[in-house]
Amino acid sequence: MNPPPASRLIRFNKPYGVLSQFTDEGRWRGLKDFIDLPGVYVAGRLDADSEGLLLLTNDGQLQARIADPRFKMEKTYWVQVEGVPDEAALAALRQGVTLKDGITLPARARLLNEPPAIWDRDPPIRVRQAIPTAWVELVIREGRNRQVRRMTAAVGLPTLRLIRAAIGPYALEGLAPGAWLDAPPG
Length: 186
Hints:
The protein is of the alpha+beta class. Helices cover 13% and strands 30% of the residues. It is globular, with a radius of gyration of 17 Å. The mean pLDDT is 91.
């Protein structure tokens, strides 16, 4: 009888236009174009039009600890928004905003004085000359469908670009788009 495989955790920088699944679907590519590792599964999801950190593991218990909202693992996002948030918008995000599916949990929100040191997106975001953009760091403990985009829209700041920078202790740092590395499973 073979021993069970060692627990493995993969940090992946998911590019724009890639699904959080191995199979392609319509115009969106799948993870199989980047990761050829049997037996690993996504722990949490990231929309095709969002970028950044995606974790994959072969350990079902670890996958549940990362993805299950009951464990409230923090997720950090860098959000480029249309407009410049004032203190009232940031305060609303910090208190929790009302969405169609209820009030969100309070978030940590701050305006980033400088854009994060990131890659160019392909394709680039739409830019409107008369409307400025800003970057907000948003830390949430939930994982509702398209939650960050809905939260920023609720305070009058449509999301133009969304990058997940961290999930709990695991960060995007050091990964180019489409690259992956093993991480200690914690």
